[in-house]
Amino acid sequence: MGPSRTGPAAKAVRSSFDIHERAIADGSATASGLTAYARLLVKAGEYARAVQVLDAVLRVRSDDVEVWWLLGTVLRGMGQREAAIGAFTQGAGFKPKTAGFYLDYGKCLLEFGAAESAADVARRGLEADGANLDLRSLLASALLAAGQPGSAVEEARRVLSHRKQDVAAINTLGLSLAALGDQAGAVAAFERALAIQPNHKQSLGNMALALWEECRHGEALHAMIAAADGSADPRIHKLLAMLRISLGDFTAGWAGYDWRHQARDLGGDPPPPPPPAHLPKWDGVHRPGERVLICGEQGIGDEIMFSGVLPRLLKPGGLFALTCEPRLRPLFSRSFPGLQVFARGDYDRLPDDVTAWRWLGDLPGMLRPDRHGSPWLEPGYLQADGARVAELRRRYADGRPLVGVSWRTTNRRSGPKRCLPPGELQRLLSIESVRWISLQYGKPADLREIGGERLIVDETLDALADLDVFAAQVAAMDHVVTIDNSTVHVAGGLGVPTMLLLPKCADWRWMVGRAECVWYGSVELCRQEDAGAWTPVIDRACAAIRSW
What was the pLDDT predicted at 415? Predict the structure, then answer.
């Protein structure tokens, strides 16, 4: 047991380790001695043994906050965040008075994605030490992550009133302002941070994102490249790839898009179940008699959009299987008869001839549909249930064109700028020459209250629970008007004529400086010319709708 390094210092440490191990063996070790030994083990990098020793201490001194704190810290360093949180939680039950305990506990919670709990822990720490600026900075970060940017701004400014050069607090301030829609204020904050530390990678990445949100794409690209240079942060590389794709640099963009998988582990989209460990990653070569597993990933809209590349993949005649979000399985099974379709993660049912795998989101980079002009996806590649479509058309028909409408998303980061304000929705619904059908998920009573008497809300359908029947509902429409949410992907995949209402700075997939939708031929883009200005967008939409 102990370090393997040589030299006088290492020999002294090893001798100390031997003494502690003999004391453990003969039963003479004290709790204090064991704790001291655990600290030596941590310094030597012997984390697993340190955990064993600390567990032994806690069996006889379970109320020792310092030991719980050390155990939580060691487990956190080992990447065992859930176990670390358990240790910190046990220690917190004994009401520690040390601010450092709450700081480490809160950081661990924040890393694990438990932002609201991290904020609560930071507040408890501030009760013990109200002047601790590190705890207040943690509170600001936790509030931002919990979706409370206004409160995060207040806390970050409290920190900065005492520590004006605190780059971390300045970044929290900038990110909070950006979440509130104040992109100019966010850019100013990141400029302030970069004036203090000119090559600070996090500040550069945040600056790039804020510039992107302001549609200052050239400056954003410059800042993002600088942020990515020498950085191991996958989030920066993922954002750079997406920005490059949106600007039309597809070769570099698709090459970097693979970073999305590592970014998921750091607070991005929930990671999909990993493919079977024994399967190699597919190299793109079709081999007779061998089947390739395509693994679905990301959100519903992403799976639908990327699945549009599958017909191009299937044309050479290779054998493939697909895993997808379970709610998409009926729709995909009908739409892609050449595929064996399984629920995401249902690897036990895979056929024996599966010999390799690939992520669904890798297909555009492999097959390069962008080299063939837009739209990139074949028209109407999704096939809804024809009987349901016919039944729904009969149910809704009154002689007017059927127009489905969707106006909001629950996306916390970008939702506020994408959602249609109630007043603008009412202007759409005021057009009486069409029959408006709600394609918006939510409680029927709430949808009816928002839409009023002109909006048909079909209570027999649940768009979230049954995506196959939702696809039939969309296919029953003559036209669709929607914001950027999963509805546009369902409508686009089905080939339904669709008007997509976009903010000025839209998501990467809708590109920069292009009037046409590169993915779906049936989708027309209707963008804001000025950030937040929906009225001209709705004016154009209303003029088009009156001609239907």
Answer: 77
